[in-house]
Design a protein that fits this description.
- It catalyses: gibberellin A1 + 2-oxoglutarate + O2 = gibberellin A8 + succinate + CO2.
- GO terms for molecular function: gibberellin 2-beta-dioxygenase activity; metal ion binding.
- InterPro entries: DIOX_N, IPNS-like_FE2OG_OXY, IPNS-like_sf, Iron_ascorbate_oxido_reductase, Oxoglu/Fe-dep_dioxygenase_dom.
- Strand 9 and strand 10 form a beta hairpin.
- By secondary structure, the chain is α+β, with helices and mostly antiparallel strands.
- Helix content is about 35%, strand content about 20%.
- It is globular and about 55 Å long.
Length: about 350
């Protein structure tokens, strides 16, 4: 591993996690990463959503089928004509960069965005459990709160995030309804159980990492929600598991990425797939993304909409608690397999 100045990195990953970057830990990480190297670059299925609203019935059903097929075969897809302003996303990205470029001490100590700042992995015991990234992970309910928790220079960011969250919330509910419709199930569940009290908006930054090309920007995982909507930049780095192999996703800044979460896989009785994915660091440039997570209330009961079910019934609170316990004891998320019948 090349020598570097710990003080030159913001956040101070190398300084605070120096025990992870020892020669032995790095060798172990490189060995394990080699076994999961990317074998190909691909483009996700690209779906034009205009036919959901403006097409005739045949065109609409073709679009529904495209969404359902991608959710079953890939667990990921891209959408265009999604109804979210490109200028709004660009303006939010500009404010996002300004926020992340604050000194680390100010990000940690500030109350901006309701003290939602996080970085690295406090529980990591090896590089395979570490993420070279920082984020503001904000509950939507907190975006509506003021109460002196927002510094004046970032009030515009809060307003932009509220608009993005509102637009992505609407899109997520449309897509969830389409996927429920395809299964012949009622879509009322999402309207009744998913609200701003439990959904999140996350601003991500992946700083450049020039000393170790195998370092995760975000370690392999599945999402613990129903749906995730992602707006990413042109840099790339997102990879997902397809046919038991890691594939690199070619970035398309003009499209939004949608992926199925664990809860939707259980709710659909494995028709739709929550697919493992990760982000790899870039040695020269930083990467940014904005993610919206469609989540239910903590007491919502997740059960398969079709019988016989492969999963026992569980609440979102029970699922999150089990994930946290597994990460604490093993360093990794186990996820849905804990709830199989």
């Amino acid at each position: 591993m090349a020598a570097f100045q710990a003080s030159s990195y913001d956040p101070p990953f190398s300084q605070n996690y120096s025990f992870l970057f020892s020669a032995s830990a790095d060798a172990e990480h490189s060995c394990s990463s080699h076994e999961s190297r990317v074998t190909a670059e691909c483009e996700l299925p690209l779906i034009d959503l205009k036919d959901l609203q403006c097409g005739n019935e045949e065109e609409r059903m073709d679009c529904v089928a495209e969404i359902a097929n991608a959710s079953s075969e890939w667990g990921f897809f891209q959408v265009v004509n999604h109804g979210i302003s490109t200028e709004l996303l660009k303006e939010t990205r500009r404010e996002q960069k300004r926020l992340f470029h604050r000194p680390f001490e100010k990000k940690v100590g500030s109350k901006v965005l309701n003290e939602s700042y996080r970085w690295g992995n406090p529980t990591a015991t090896s590089l395979d459990q570490f993420s070279w990234s920082e984020a503001f992970h904000v509950p939507l309910s907190k975006l509506a709160e003021d109460g002196g928790c927002y510094e004046d220079e970032f009030r515009s960011l809060r307003e932009l995030m509220q608009k993005v969250a509102g637009s992505m919330s609407e899109l997520a509910r449309i897509l969830a309804g389409v996927l429920a419709e395809n299964l012949g199930c009622h879509e009322d569940f999402f309207a009744e159980n998913c609200s701003e009290n439990t959904c999140f908006l996350r601003l991500n930054r992946y700083p450049s990492c020039p000393f170790s090309p195998e370092t995760f920007g975000l370690m392999p995982h599945t999402d613990s929600d129903f749906l995730t909507i992602l707006h990413q930049d042109h840099v790339g780095g997102l990879q997902l598991m397809k046919d038991s192999k890691w594939v690199s996703i070619k970035p398309n800044p003009e499209a939004l990425i949608v992926n199925i979460g664990d809860l939707f896989q259980a709710w659909s009785n494995d028709v739709y797939k929550s697919v493992e994915h990760k982000v790899m660091t870039n040695s020269k440039v930083e990467r940014y993304s904005i993610a919206y997570f469609l989540c239910p209330s903590y007491d919502s009961i997740i059960s398969s909409c079709k019988e016989p079910s492969r999963y026992k019934k569980f609440t979102f609170k029970e699922f999150r608690r089990q994930v946290q316990e597994d990460v604490k004891t093993t360093g990794y998320k186990v996820g849905l397999s804990r709830f199989l019948l």
